[in-house]
Write a structure and sequence with these properties.
Number of strands: 24
Largest sheet: 9 strands, mixed
Strand order of the largest sheet: 15-13-14-10-9-16-17-12-18
Shape: globular
Number of helices: 17
Strand content: 15-25%
């Protein structure tokens, strides 16, 4: 532990340019701080004659120097500690530096890769003004394209702002030059060097800040600190003995590159995002023309992901993105799903393939290969439906295939209607009138005030003309989905007469049992690991804390809502309540 002591003095830094007023104030601070240290005013030992008060601060992560955000947050803890100390209380303010998890390892790996690729010191391509200019142009064009797609007018375009501050690719070497002497940077390919370097700097900065911490009680995390490691082990062993820690297969946010669960502190994007459950609807391919010929004789399905399996009685067609890139992927049971490559990665991590994270692609396809493809849709009124073009499909969400229920999905209704009303447009994708005109909207859910075809009602009410009316469509979708789930009554199927909220889980379970559907998970929104990997959801063996266990949850609730607990504001108390209701299982 000696080599990792946070009390080691940091390397000397050249003195900044002097200013008389600042130097006077700083000298006064140093004098007062010296008196504090001599009197050991912040060292708190047990004292039965005084009321005890403890202040804590979230461990700052040690993949760099502390910054102004830390200082701002810390002032609240410092003020409270000093205030309670002035009232005569025995105040304890310990401190720790967080070194656990992937961020430090990821940064070390990134630095190592930069040195291997560009030399030491690295000669990055953006150092060439011409290359940097091309990067700036590309970034500006990408930002402008994104701004054009932005339907939220309040956010405006940020293309110029991006270009103005753009300096090329973010390099780990360049980040470290702002915090570490350049001659020392190559050592940081070893993650333990980060543990030896940044905590002493953090301690020194905090002392100069006058943070009022009992530095005898300071430490770093990770197993390199055997004392802290023993404490964490004791916690989890105790929780396991009490039956609070469980083991089993669970869906977790997963980094294929890092080969591990990607917890919040391991993410560069997507903090707080969890797995989202979808129901995959198996739309059986009935014919194998053109590029699909090699699949003849197999059980092949277009596999859209939906959050509304109860609406499958209203299917009239299926949508694909004409320019989208798809593949035919063979699953463990021999079935073949036509989906996006991104979705196939997710399936391969959820027990659908022989090898984990290795999808088995039989053939590559484009959306145009799927246009006009006849399908058998489970629960649908029509024996045969067709695959139609939809230009607004995002290949970064779901499977890239979308099933269509125009009675209750405004986007589906508008898109189908446009293909019916504009045969010349449909013909560009090989779609004939016979593939769209016979398929009338099928009433499946009665919603008070909206009728039995709520999507049609809302599109007419808001005068939505095409899928380009994005704001109106979003409003129509939100309203119909909310009203449908809360007040809708099923008009068809074995659960006719039941509320949608009651019928939905039953219909989903029945479809899965009969083999016309299956479950699929993906992150609620994009999650990026600190190693630059876009994460998926994986079904893995996992230790987890069962926060949702009723006796545990109720014990915490009884404390939080008792007279012994002070949340200091109704808003904070409500957040505690929401968190306690939301927490169920949490990966260890």
């Amino acid at each position: 532990m000696d080599k990792l002591s946070i009390n080691d003095p940091p390397p000397a830094v050249a003195a900044p340019k002097k200013f008389v007023k600042r130097d006077f104030l700083r000298a006064n601070e140093e004098g007062v701080q010296a008196k504090w240290d001599a009197a050991r005013v912040f060292e708190a030992d047990p004292d039965p004659s005084k009321e005890a008060f403890m202040v804590t601060f979230p461990y700052p992560y040690m993949n760099g120097r502390l910054h102004l955000g830390h200082a701002f947050s810390l002032t609240k803890a410092i003020f409270r500690a000093q205030y309670e100390r002035q009232k005569g209380k025995n105040v304890l303010f310990p401190f720790a530096f967080h070194c656990t998890g992937m961020p430090i390892q990821a940064a070390a790996n990134k630095l190592k890769a930069e040195i291997n690729q560009f030399g030491c010191p690295p000669a990055f391509p953006e150092a060439d003004p011409a290359v940097l200019a091309a990067m700036i142009k590309e970034a500006e064009e990408a930002a402008e394209a994104k701004a054009k797609k932005n339907t939220d007018k309040s956010k405006g375009s940020k293309a110029k702002l991006v270009a103005k501050g753009y300096t090329g690719v973010v390099r780990q070497w360049n980040i470290l030059t702002k915090m570490v002497p350049e001659s020392e940077i190559p050592k940081f390919v070893d993650p333990e060097v980060w543990l030896q370097y940044f905590p002493p700097h953090g301690l020194s900065d905090l002392k100069r800040f006058g943070s009022g911490v009992d530095w005898r009680r300071a430490f770093i995390t990770t197993s390199t600190n055997p004392f802290y490691d023993a404490f964490i082990r004791w916690q989890f062993e105790t929780l396991r003995e009490k039956g609070k820690v469980k083991f089993g297969k669970r869906n977790n946010i997963w980094s294929i590159l890092d080969e591990q669960v990607c917890a919040d502190h391991d993410r560069s994007e997507g903090e707080g995002v969890g797995p989202q459950e979808y129901t995959i609807i198996k739309l059986k391919v009935l014919e194998f023309p053109g590029a699909l010929a090699p699949l003849a004789g197999k059980d092949v399905f277009l596999a859209p992901a939906t959050l509304r399996p109860e609406t499958m009685y209203g299917q009239t067609n299926c949508f694909a993105l004409p320019e989208g890139k798809y593949g035919a992927f063979e699953m463990l049971n021999g079935e073949v799903f036509i989906i996006s490559h991104r979705a196939a990665k997710g399936f391969s991590c959820q027990g659908y393939n022989e090898e984990f994270a290795k999808p088995k692609c039989l053939i590559e396809l484009t959306g145009m290969d799927l246009m006009g493809l006849p399908l058998a849709a489970p629960n649908a009124k029509y024996e045969r439906v067709y695959t139609l073009p939809l230009l607004t499909i995002s290949m970064g969400k779901g499977t890239g295939i979308v099933t269509s229920v125009p009675s209750d999905a405004p986007d589906d209704y508008v898109s189908l209607k446009m293909l019916v009303d504009k045969p010349d447009f449909a013909a560009k994708f090989g779609i004939t009138p016979e593939m769209v005109k016979p398929f009338e909207v099928v009433p499946i859910i009665e919603i008070p005030g909206y009728g039995s075809t709520s999507a049609v009602f809302m599109c007419e009410k808001l005068k939505i003309q095409s899928y380009n009316d994005k704001d109106k469509l979003e409003k129509a979708k939100d309203e119909t989905y909310l009203k449908g789930f809360n007040t809708g009554i099923m008009l068809v199927g074995p659960h006719k007469g039941k509320k949608v909220s009651q019928a939905k889980p039953l219909i989903k379970a029945e479809m899965i049992a009969e083999g016309t559907a299956c479950l699929y998970f993906e992150p609620e929104r994009k999650v990026m690991s600190r190693t630059g990997d876009e994460c998926v959801v994986a079904l893995t063996d996992q230790w987890y804390l069962e926060y949702g266990e009723e006796s545990w949850k109720e014990a915490v609730k009884s404390h939080v809502f008792s007279e012994n607990f002070n949340a200091y504001s109704p808003e904070s108390l409500e957040r505690y309540r929401q968190s306690l209701d939301w927490l169920k299982e949490w990966a260890c």
